Amino acid sequence: MNVPVDILRFNTCGSVDDGKSTLIGRLLYDSKSLMEDQIEALERSAAITGGGQINLANLTDGLRAEREQGITIDVAYRYFATPRRKFIIADTPGHVQYTRNMVTGASSANLSIILVDARAGVIEQSRRHTAIASLLRIPHLVVAVNKMDLVGWSEQRFLEIRAQFEEFLPRLDIKDVKFIPLSALNGDNVVEPSAHTPWYVGPTLLGHLETVHIASDWNLTGFRLPVQWVNRPHNPTDPALHDFRGFSGQIAGGIVRAGQKIIALPAGIVTTVKQIWTYDGPVQEAFCPQSVTLVLEHDIDISRGSMLIGTDHLPGASTQLQAEVCWMHPRALQSGRKYLLKHTTHTVQVAVTDIVSKLNLATLEPELAPAELAVNDIGEIRLRAAQPLVFDGYATNRLTGSFILIEPNTNATVAAGMLLPPAEIVKPENGDYVI
What we know:
With about 425 residues, this protein is an alpha+beta fold. The chain has helices at about 20-30, 35-50, 65-70, 100-105, 125-135, 155-170, 205-210, 240; strands spanning about 5-15, 75-80, 85-90, 110-115, 140-145, 175-180, 225, 230, 245-250, 255, 260-265, 270-280, 280-285, 285, 290-295, 305-310, 315-325, 340-345, 345-360, 365-370, 380-390, 400-405, 415-420. It is built from eight helices and 23 strands. A hairpin with a 3-residue loop joins strand 11 (about 260-265) and strand 12. The radius of gyration is 24 Å and the shape is globular.
């Protein structure tokens, strides 16, 4: 029997020149996750530029402007695997002006690596990126104290930086934090333990990434299935598929079992799960984040944008929304503007009714009632939707508590948002809901 290998999604962030791209390159290089042609290209580049040292950052800094300036601008995704786990890496920019890119890369991460230059210690960008990781409810954080070779592998310096972080970490909602001293350029404590840190007894970075517990990161309480499409194969040659009608999508929360009662929203109809189909065939139960097709006992009229939920741990349903957003568009956000809000598989028109506050990422304190949110600002806003939205608070469920705002005229994504807990809860006990 094949043992399933889970996937860890993580991002790297930190200030400019802290070594984010080099660290990812070192992970790929030392874990032997590169193709031969990639290694040859790195060696040719080293020969051309002189010095003979491979520039591992070139593995992720793919844009010409990134290589010319020696900075990361866009989000670069890389994939690799070890026998213990598969990995998806998002290399995100360090510049303040690319905060929106960092939010994009971190939005789906299980773990965030905050790189700190051992010489500079904790700076404003360190606090900013840690605060964003907290806002995004990333469950696990690694503080990688890089360039330890440039401070003589000083244990005292490592402890000083850890103490600086521990001063402000209690103000943030991050429960699992690991500190690791390393040198991305030389590979110390990245994949292999370093002889330069006898005072450090913890795992290497890769060792921690392979073993950090992520099974409980998914919300397995309260079944949620946003309907992506109605699955009707219409195969006249196969009697089993001739009248097949199922509702397909990715489970966004909880567990579903054959025979379980569920509610279809916003129709408010209670029905029963008859069958659960996956790519590999029928199963008796499925859980977040599996993709499934549900066949129901009753032939109900729902479509893309509807949500199937369990009868316990109910979500909210309201036209009045409150959310934290990262504004991504050069034109500032102001009250009264109308946008399209895409939430799971549902899109609805909304109007911004109020800008409650803007987060000062230097002090981590809110600034009340700002006139607008400029590009890369993070703030709290109120929205009014044209139709009720079925949702959970982002802190409860990252998949059903997140959304994006779209400018109707250009289809540009202007903001990423995190819904605050709903004030109104769905009440399915109404007898009109039941078939």
